[in-house]
Amino acid sequence: MSEVLYYAIPFFVLLLVVEALTYRHLQSDGLVGYELADTRTSIAMGLGNVAVNAVWKLAVVAIYAALYELTPLRLDPGDWWVWVLLFFADDLAYYWFHRVSHESRVFWASHVVHHSSQHYNLSTAVRQTWVPMTYLPFWLPLPLLGFPPWTVLLAQSWSLIYQFGLHTERIGKLPRPLEAILNTPSHHRVHHGANEQYLDRNYGGILVVWDRLFRSFEPEGERVRYGLTTNIETHNVLRVAFHEYAAIGRDLKHARGWRRRASILLRGPGYTPPEVTSAGERAAGP
Prior knowledge:
By secondary structure, the chain is mostly helical. Helix content is 62%, strand content 0%. The chain contains 15 helices and no strands.
């Protein structure tokens, strides 16, 4: 069922081309648009993600199946309410995966890839990590609750397909009732913003209700500046894929004691022990 996402790839490509053409032939109103090297990097990252997941999904299926066999709970996909419950359970799992991916550096090292573009268009949606293993823990409760593994994989696919369409500046704000409930292009533009008030906001997948409930919601106001607070300024796919892991390695080398090293891995990306800061300043000095 995870292959449903792969079946959507031709439609992703078609929509990407159509959106890119609109920037050539229609008024862009100062939107960021496309840039060839950036788009090429995003597509390369997406292809790498597909290749890695072709192998990694085998492990995921085995783990889900093992957990499903261990639990006495069973939810019958023939019951309509099971699909409603699955929709909300999957979306809540995605919210916490996404939030932790911003608030814990070892998870951020994987997710930062998706935020590394200074553009915001449908090609940004396919700029995905080559280390997708970080999402696994957040969905483990679902097979334990009795959801058949294939239904969990299907839910993950429909969520990602929905989220592809969020990565565009071409769609403004939707009618207010939809903006109140759904994650929309407007809400997700905020999530990709490097503006101070937009940092670590709007983690939702399909729904924005979790952000409102857990107080991580921010509406779109001032124009969004896309990318990272400190951009990596490279189109080298290896650096895009692994630059934060390299930075973590350097910080761990200079950290004193296991408690500081654990803090580097588990606390937010902005945390730096004093000795690591001092080492960085010395390295940057004359």
